[in-house]
Design brief:
The complex is a heterodimer of chains A (about 90) and B (about 325). Chain A has four helices and two strands; from the N terminus they run αββααα. With about 90 residues, chain A is mainly alpha-helical. Chain A is globular, with a radius of gyration of 12 Å. Chain B folds into three domains: about 70 residues; about 110 residues, Sandwich (Immunoglobulin-like), CATH 2.60.40.420; about 90 residues, Sandwich (Immunoglobulin-like), CATH 2.60.40. In chain B, α5 crosses α8 and α7 crosses α8. The chains are: A mainly alpha (about 90), B alpha+beta (about 325). Chains A and B meet through loops of A and β12, α7 and α8 of B. Chain B: It comes from Sphingomonas edaphi.
Protein backbone atom coordinates (compact mmCIF):
# COMPACT_ATOMS: atom_id res chain seq x y z
CA UNK A 1 0.00 0.00 0.00
CA UNK A 2 2.79 2.38 0.97
CA UNK A 3 4.46 1.64 -2.37
CA UNK A 4 1.25 1.89 -4.36
CA UNK A 5 0.54 5.47 -3.34
CA UNK A 6 4.23 6.20 -2.58
CA UNK A 7 3.89 7.79 0.86
CA UNK A 8 7.67 8.06 0.58
CA UNK A 9 7.25 11.04 -1.75
CA UNK A 10 6.91 13.15 1.40
CA UNK A 11 8.05 10.94 4.26
CA UNK A 12 11.05 8.93 5.32
CA UNK A 13 9.51 5.57 6.18
CA UNK A 14 11.21 2.69 7.96
CA UNK A 15 11.76 -0.22 5.60
CA UNK A 16 11.36 1.90 2.45
CA UNK A 17 14.62 2.49 0.54
CA UNK A 18 13.22 4.96 -1.97
CA UNK A 19 11.85 7.56 -2.11
CA UNK A 20 12.84 9.25 1.14
CA UNK A 21 10.81 12.43 0.78
CA UNK A 22 11.58 15.38 3.04
CA UNK A 23 8.55 17.59 2.58
CA UNK A 24 6.74 15.97 5.48
CA UNK A 25 8.12 14.59 8.74
CA UNK A 26 10.05 11.35 8.99
CA UNK A 27 7.81 8.53 10.16
CA UNK A 28 10.66 6.50 11.60
CA UNK A 29 9.86 6.03 15.28
CA UNK A 30 6.08 6.23 15.24
CA UNK A 31 5.98 3.71 18.10
CA UNK A 32 7.66 6.29 20.35
CA UNK A 33 5.96 9.38 18.95
CA UNK A 34 3.87 11.38 21.43
CA UNK A 35 1.42 13.10 19.10
CA UNK A 36 0.12 12.46 15.61
CA UNK A 37 0.60 15.57 13.45
CA UNK A 38 1.50 17.47 16.63
CA UNK A 39 -2.17 17.45 17.51
CA UNK A 40 -3.69 14.10 18.49
CA UNK A 41 -2.66 11.43 21.00
CA UNK A 42 -0.74 8.74 19.12
CA UNK A 43 -3.24 5.90 19.07
CA UNK A 44 -3.51 3.53 16.09
CA UNK A 45 -7.02 4.87 15.45
CA UNK A 46 -5.93 8.50 15.34
CA UNK A 47 -2.94 7.60 13.21
CA UNK A 48 -5.10 5.68 10.72
CA UNK A 49 -7.67 8.47 10.55
CA UNK A 50 -4.97 11.03 9.81
CA UNK A 51 -3.36 8.80 7.19
CA UNK A 52 -6.61 8.31 5.33
CA UNK A 53 -7.99 11.82 5.36
CA UNK A 54 -5.65 14.29 7.01
CA UNK A 55 -7.49 17.52 6.08
CA UNK A 56 -10.69 16.18 7.66
CA UNK A 57 -9.08 15.74 11.07
CA UNK A 58 -6.62 18.63 10.83
CA UNK A 59 -7.88 21.37 8.51
CA UNK A 60 -5.10 23.29 6.82
CA UNK A 61 -2.56 20.51 6.73
CA UNK A 62 -0.70 20.10 3.47
CA UNK A 63 -1.11 16.34 3.64
CA UNK A 64 -3.96 15.39 1.30
CA UNK A 65 -6.63 12.74 1.73
CA UNK A 66 -5.10 9.53 0.39
CA UNK A 67 -6.76 7.24 -2.16
CA UNK A 68 -7.05 4.35 0.30
CA UNK A 69 -9.91 2.96 2.39
CA UNK A 70 -10.26 2.67 6.20
CA UNK A 71 -8.91 -0.83 6.34
CA UNK A 72 -5.88 0.04 4.24
CA UNK A 73 -5.25 3.09 6.42
CA UNK A 74 -5.30 0.88 9.53
CA UNK A 75 -2.82 -1.48 7.84
CA UNK A 76 -0.51 1.42 7.05
CA UNK A 77 -0.76 2.73 10.63
CA UNK A 78 0.04 -0.70 12.00
CA UNK A 79 2.97 -1.04 9.62
CA UNK A 80 4.44 2.30 10.74
CA UNK A 81 4.15 1.35 14.41
CA UNK A 82 5.50 -2.18 14.02
CA UNK A 83 8.29 -1.29 11.61
CA UNK A 84 9.53 1.47 13.93
CA UNK A 85 10.06 -1.10 16.67
CA UNK A 86 12.60 -3.07 14.65
CA UNK B 1 9.51 2.55 -14.03
CA UNK B 2 10.78 -0.67 -12.54
CA UNK B 3 8.11 -2.37 -14.63
CA UNK B 4 10.52 -2.00 -17.56
CA UNK B 5 13.14 -4.12 -15.85
CA UNK B 6 11.39 -6.58 -13.57
CA UNK B 7 8.51 -9.00 -13.81
CA UNK B 8 8.05 -12.51 -15.11
CA UNK B 9 8.75 -13.26 -17.86
CA UNK B 10 11.38 -10.51 -17.98
CA UNK B 11 10.10 -7.77 -20.30
CA UNK B 12 13.00 -8.24 -22.71
CA UNK B 13 11.93 -11.87 -23.22
CA UNK B 14 8.25 -10.96 -23.47
CA UNK B 15 7.87 -9.14 -26.81
CA UNK B 16 4.58 -7.39 -27.47
CA UNK B 17 5.19 -6.52 -31.11
CA UNK B 18 7.15 -7.40 -34.24
CA UNK B 19 10.00 -4.99 -33.43
CA UNK B 20 10.72 -6.78 -30.18
CA UNK B 21 10.46 -10.37 -31.45
CA UNK B 22 13.95 -10.52 -33.01
CA UNK B 23 15.43 -9.15 -29.79
CA UNK B 24 14.01 -12.08 -27.89
CA UNK B 25 15.27 -14.55 -30.50
CA UNK B 26 18.77 -13.08 -30.35
CA UNK B 27 18.68 -13.02 -26.54
CA UNK B 28 17.84 -16.73 -26.37
CA UNK B 29 20.44 -17.59 -29.03
CA UNK B 30 23.12 -15.65 -27.14
CA UNK B 31 22.21 -17.33 -23.88
CA UNK B 32 22.19 -20.75 -25.54
CA UNK B 33 25.54 -20.25 -27.24
CA UNK B 34 27.01 -18.89 -24.04
CA UNK B 35 25.87 -21.97 -22.14
CA UNK B 36 27.22 -24.29 -24.84
CA UNK B 37 30.65 -22.62 -24.98
CA UNK B 38 30.90 -22.57 -21.19
CA UNK B 39 30.11 -26.29 -21.07
CA UNK B 40 32.76 -27.08 -23.69
CA UNK B 41 35.40 -25.01 -21.91
CA UNK B 42 34.64 -26.62 -18.55
CA UNK B 43 34.78 -30.07 -20.18
CA UNK B 44 38.13 -29.26 -21.78
CA UNK B 45 39.45 -27.99 -18.45
CA UNK B 46 38.39 -31.21 -16.80
CA UNK B 47 40.13 -33.26 -19.50
CA UNK B 48 43.30 -31.19 -19.12
CA UNK B 49 43.22 -31.67 -15.37
CA UNK B 50 42.07 -35.27 -14.85
CA UNK B 51 41.65 -36.79 -18.32
CA UNK B 52 43.58 -39.82 -19.62
CA UNK B 53 47.06 -38.97 -20.97
CA UNK B 54 46.09 -39.70 -24.57
CA UNK B 55 43.21 -37.18 -24.42
CA UNK B 56 45.40 -34.61 -22.75
CA UNK B 57 48.04 -34.95 -25.45
CA UNK B 58 45.39 -34.62 -28.13
CA UNK B 59 43.83 -31.58 -26.46
CA UNK B 60 47.20 -29.85 -26.22
CA UNK B 61 48.21 -30.73 -29.79
CA UNK B 62 48.46 -28.28 -32.62
CA UNK B 63 45.48 -29.74 -34.48
CA UNK B 64 43.14 -29.11 -31.54
CA UNK B 65 44.33 -25.55 -31.24
CA UNK B 66 43.79 -24.90 -34.93
CA UNK B 67 40.38 -26.56 -34.97
CA UNK B 68 38.91 -25.32 -31.69
CA UNK B 69 40.87 -22.09 -31.43
CA UNK B 70 40.70 -20.82 -34.99
CA UNK B 71 38.52 -22.73 -37.41
CA UNK B 72 35.47 -23.39 -35.25
CA UNK B 73 35.16 -19.89 -33.75
CA UNK B 74 35.67 -18.30 -37.17
CA UNK B 75 32.94 -20.39 -38.75
CA UNK B 76 30.51 -20.18 -35.82
CA UNK B 77 30.99 -16.49 -35.20
CA UNK B 78 30.69 -15.64 -38.88
CA UNK B 79 27.50 -17.67 -39.15
CA UNK B 80 26.09 -16.05 -36.01
CA UNK B 81 27.02 -12.60 -37.26
CA UNK B 82 25.33 -13.11 -40.62
CA UNK B 83 22.25 -14.63 -38.99
CA UNK B 84 22.07 -11.85 -36.40
CA UNK B 85 22.41 -9.11 -38.99
CA UNK B 86 19.71 -10.65 -41.15
CA UNK B 87 17.42 -10.96 -38.16
CA UNK B 88 17.92 -7.44 -36.90
CA UNK B 89 17.94 -5.78 -40.34
CA UNK B 90 14.15 -5.75 -40.05
CA UNK B 91 14.38 -3.55 -36.97
CA UNK B 92 15.88 -0.71 -38.96
CA UNK B 93 13.25 -0.74 -41.66
CA UNK B 94 11.59 2.67 -41.49
CA UNK B 95 7.86 2.76 -40.90
CA UNK B 96 5.77 3.26 -44.01
CA UNK B 97 4.76 6.77 -45.07
CA UNK B 98 1.65 7.78 -43.23
CA UNK B 99 2.63 6.01 -40.02
CA UNK B 100 2.09 7.92 -36.81
CA UNK B 101 5.12 10.14 -36.06
CA UNK B 102 6.50 10.96 -32.64
CA UNK B 103 9.65 12.65 -31.44
CA UNK B 104 11.08 11.65 -28.08
CA UNK B 105 13.88 13.80 -26.71
CA UNK B 106 16.08 12.69 -23.85
CA UNK B 107 16.63 15.41 -21.26
CA UNK B 108 18.41 15.28 -17.92
CA UNK B 109 16.48 13.32 -16.57
CA UNK B 110 13.18 12.79 -18.33
CA UNK B 111 11.70 12.15 -21.76
CA UNK B 112 10.05 14.93 -23.77
CA UNK B 113 7.37 13.40 -25.97
CA UNK B 114 6.08 15.29 -29.02
CA UNK B 115 3.36 14.12 -31.36
CA UNK B 116 4.06 15.22 -34.94
CA UNK B 117 1.85 15.77 -37.95
CA UNK B 118 2.81 14.18 -41.30
CA UNK B 119 4.99 17.21 -42.11
CA UNK B 120 6.87 16.82 -38.85
CA UNK B 121 5.37 19.78 -37.00
CA UNK B 122 4.67 19.42 -33.29
CA UNK B 123 0.96 19.15 -32.58
CA UNK B 124 1.03 18.14 -28.92
CA UNK B 125 3.65 17.82 -26.26
CA UNK B 126 3.76 15.47 -23.33
CA UNK B 127 6.32 14.06 -20.91
CA UNK B 128 7.38 10.58 -19.90
CA UNK B 129 4.27 9.08 -21.40
CA UNK B 130 3.63 7.98 -24.97
CA UNK B 131 0.20 6.87 -26.14
CA UNK B 132 -0.01 4.71 -29.25
CA UNK B 133 -2.69 2.69 -31.03
CA UNK B 134 -2.20 -1.08 -31.15
CA UNK B 135 -1.45 -3.03 -34.28
CA UNK B 136 0.36 -0.37 -36.27
CA UNK B 137 3.95 0.77 -36.51
CA UNK B 138 4.81 4.10 -34.91
CA UNK B 139 7.83 6.01 -36.21
CA UNK B 140 9.82 7.50 -33.35
CA UNK B 141 12.50 10.13 -33.89
CA UNK B 142 14.99 10.02 -31.05
CA UNK B 143 16.91 13.14 -30.09
CA UNK B 144 18.76 14.51 -27.10
CA UNK B 145 18.79 17.95 -25.52
CA UNK B 146 22.03 17.52 -23.59
CA UNK B 147 23.99 14.28 -23.22
CA UNK B 148 23.66 10.80 -24.67
CA UNK B 149 20.59 8.95 -23.44
CA UNK B 150 19.11 5.72 -24.70
CA UNK B 151 15.46 4.91 -25.33
CA UNK B 152 14.45 1.45 -24.19
CA UNK B 153 10.97 0.01 -23.87
CA UNK B 154 11.89 -3.67 -23.69
CA UNK B 155 8.41 -5.01 -24.46
CA UNK B 156 8.36 -3.10 -27.75
CA UNK B 157 11.88 -2.83 -29.16
CA UNK B 158 15.59 -2.93 -28.55
CA UNK B 159 17.54 0.01 -27.18
CA UNK B 160 18.50 2.94 -29.33
CA UNK B 161 20.72 5.83 -28.34
CA UNK B 162 19.55 9.43 -28.24
CA UNK B 163 22.52 11.47 -29.39
CA UNK B 164 22.90 15.26 -29.22
CA UNK B 165 22.85 16.83 -32.67
CA UNK B 166 21.40 13.89 -34.53
CA UNK B 167 18.11 12.13 -35.00
CA UNK B 168 17.96 8.38 -34.66
CA UNK B 169 14.96 6.53 -35.93
CA UNK B 170 13.19 3.69 -34.23
CA UNK B 171 9.94 1.94 -35.05
CA UNK B 172 7.78 0.33 -32.39
CA UNK B 173 4.52 -1.54 -32.53
CA UNK B 174 2.37 -2.93 -29.77
CA UNK B 175 0.08 -5.78 -30.70
CA UNK B 176 -1.64 -5.93 -27.31
CA UNK B 177 -3.21 -3.14 -25.32
CA UNK B 178 -1.33 -2.44 -22.14
CA UNK B 179 1.12 -0.29 -20.30
CA UNK B 180 4.79 -0.86 -21.07
CA UNK B 181 7.56 0.63 -18.98
CA UNK B 182 10.64 2.25 -20.43
CA UNK B 183 13.92 3.51 -19.03
CA UNK B 184 16.97 5.43 -20.10
CA UNK B 185 19.55 2.77 -20.93
CA UNK B 186 22.68 4.92 -21.20
CA UNK B 187 24.23 6.42 -18.10
CA UNK B 188 23.48 10.12 -18.37
CA UNK B 189 24.32 11.65 -15.01
CA UNK B 190 23.21 11.73 -11.44
CA UNK B 191 19.52 10.90 -11.75
CA UNK B 192 19.94 8.43 -14.63
CA UNK B 193 18.55 5.58 -12.54
CA UNK B 194 15.36 7.60 -11.97
CA UNK B 195 14.69 8.39 -15.63
CA UNK B 196 11.75 6.38 -16.86
CA UNK B 197 8.61 6.57 -18.93
CA UNK B 198 5.56 4.54 -19.91
CA UNK B 199 4.13 3.64 -23.29
CA UNK B 200 0.38 3.11 -23.21
CA UNK B 201 -1.08 1.12 -26.09
CA UNK B 202 -4.80 1.60 -26.69
CA UNK B 203 -7.14 -0.17 -29.08
CA UNK B 204 -7.36 2.13 -32.14
CA UNK B 205 -10.82 3.55 -31.34
CA UNK B 206 -9.85 4.06 -27.69
CA UNK B 207 -6.71 5.82 -28.89
CA UNK B 208 -8.88 8.13 -30.97
CA UNK B 209 -10.82 9.06 -27.83
CA UNK B 210 -7.63 9.66 -25.86
CA UNK B 211 -6.26 11.86 -28.63
CA UNK B 212 -9.49 13.86 -28.71
CA UNK B 213 -9.29 14.44 -24.96
CA UNK B 214 -5.63 15.45 -25.21
CA UNK B 215 -6.41 17.97 -27.95
CA UNK B 216 -9.33 19.31 -25.95
CA UNK B 217 -7.08 19.80 -22.91
CA UNK B 218 -4.80 21.99 -24.99
CA UNK B 219 -7.68 24.00 -26.42
CA UNK B 220 -9.72 24.49 -23.24
CA UNK B 221 -9.40 28.03 -21.93
CA UNK B 222 -8.16 28.01 -18.36
CA UNK B 223 -9.68 30.61 -16.08
CA UNK B 224 -7.26 32.47 -13.87
CA UNK B 225 -7.29 31.09 -10.36
CA UNK B 226 -5.32 31.65 -7.17
CA UNK B 227 -3.35 28.58 -8.10
CA UNK B 228 -2.50 29.81 -11.57
CA UNK B 229 -1.39 33.19 -10.24
CA UNK B 230 0.92 31.41 -7.81
CA UNK B 231 2.07 29.09 -10.59
CA UNK B 232 3.30 32.04 -12.61
CA UNK B 233 4.45 34.23 -9.69
CA UNK B 234 6.43 31.51 -7.92
CA UNK B 235 8.44 30.77 -11.03
CA UNK B 236 6.83 27.52 -12.21
CA UNK B 237 5.95 29.10 -15.54
CA UNK B 238 9.58 29.97 -16.23
CA UNK B 239 10.24 26.30 -16.94
CA UNK B 240 6.82 24.80 -17.63
CA UNK B 241 4.27 25.35 -20.37
CA UNK B 242 0.53 25.05 -19.95
CA UNK B 243 -0.98 25.29 -23.44
CA UNK B 244 -3.40 28.15 -23.83
CA UNK B 245 -1.96 30.23 -20.98
CA UNK B 246 0.92 32.64 -20.54
CA UNK B 247 2.98 29.85 -18.97
CA UNK B 248 5.39 29.08 -21.80
CA UNK B 249 8.62 27.84 -20.15
CA UNK B 250 10.52 25.29 -22.19
CA UNK B 251 13.08 23.87 -19.78
CA UNK B 252 10.83 21.44 -17.97
CA UNK B 253 8.00 19.15 -18.98
CA UNK B 254 4.87 20.57 -20.57
CA UNK B 255 2.12 20.37 -17.92
CA UNK B 256 -0.97 20.86 -20.08
CA UNK B 257 -2.38 17.46 -19.11
CA UNK B 258 -0.23 16.65 -16.09
CA UNK B 259 -3.19 15.51 -13.98
CA UNK B 260 -4.15 12.95 -16.62
CA UNK B 261 -0.71 11.35 -16.65
CA UNK B 262 -0.09 8.06 -14.96
CA UNK B 263 3.28 8.99 -13.49
CA UNK B 264 5.19 11.96 -12.08
CA UNK B 265 8.84 12.88 -11.74
CA UNK B 266 10.06 11.17 -14.91
CA UNK B 267 8.04 7.98 -14.84
CA UNK B 268 8.98 7.20 -11.25
CA UNK B 269 5.99 8.03 -9.03
CA UNK B 270 2.29 7.20 -9.30
CA UNK B 271 0.26 10.35 -9.91
CA UNK B 272 -1.86 11.29 -6.91
CA UNK B 273 -2.30 14.43 -4.85
CA UNK B 274 0.22 13.23 -2.29
CA UNK B 275 3.01 12.49 -4.75
CA UNK B 276 2.27 15.73 -6.60
CA UNK B 277 2.56 17.71 -3.36
CA UNK B 278 5.76 15.94 -2.40
CA UNK B 279 7.26 16.52 -5.84
CA UNK B 280 6.39 20.23 -6.02
CA UNK B 281 7.48 20.88 -2.45
CA UNK B 282 10.64 18.82 -2.20
CA UNK B 283 11.56 17.04 -5.41
CA UNK B 284 15.25 17.02 -4.50
CA UNK B 285 14.73 14.42 -1.81
CA UNK B 286 12.82 12.19 -4.23
CA UNK B 287 15.10 12.59 -7.25
CA UNK B 288 18.36 14.15 -6.05
CA UNK B 289 20.00 16.44 -8.57
CA UNK B 290 16.95 16.96 -10.77
CA UNK B 291 16.69 20.41 -12.31
CA UNK B 292 13.60 21.51 -10.37
CA UNK B 293 14.25 23.34 -7.11
CA UNK B 294 12.38 22.55 -3.90
CA UNK B 295 9.39 24.79 -3.31
CA UNK B 296 9.44 24.32 0.45
CA UNK B 297 9.41 28.06 1.13
CA UNK B 298 5.82 28.44 -0.02
CA UNK B 299 3.17 28.79 2.64
CA UNK B 300 1.26 25.52 3.08
CA UNK B 301 -1.84 27.23 1.69
CA UNK B 302 0.08 28.31 -1.42
CA UNK B 303 1.50 24.85 -2.02
CA UNK B 304 -2.01 23.44 -1.78
CA UNK B 305 -3.34 26.05 -4.23
CA UNK B 306 -0.65 25.19 -6.76
CA UNK B 307 -1.34 21.46 -6.44
CA UNK B 308 -5.08 22.10 -6.73
CA UNK B 309 -4.41 24.06 -9.90
CA UNK B 310 -2.23 21.29 -11.33
CA UNK B 311 -4.97 18.78 -10.59
CA UNK B 312 -7.29 20.67 -12.94
CA UNK B 313 -4.90 20.14 -15.87
CA UNK B 314 -6.21 17.04 -17.57
Amino acid sequence: MIERVQCGSCHVIPGVDWPKGRLGPSLDGMDQQGLVAGTFPNTPQNLAAFIRNAPAVKPGTVMPAMPIDDREARDVAQYLIEESKR
Amino acid sequence: MTEALFGWPPPVLDPMGPYAEPVRTVAWALSGMGALVTTLVVAALFVAWRGPPVWRARLGGQTSILVFGVALPAVVLAALLIWGLMLTAKLDRPAADGAMRVRVTGEMWWFRVQYLDPQGRVIAEDANELHIPTGQPVAIELASADVIHSFWVPHLSGKKDMIPGRTNRLTVQADRIGRYGGVCAEYCGRAHALMGMVVIAHAPDEFGRWWGARRAAAATPKPDSAGFALFTDSGCAACHTVDGTRAVGRTGPNLTNVAARQTLGGGILPNNRGTMTGWVGHSQSIKPGNRMPNYDRLEPRQLQDIVTYLETLK
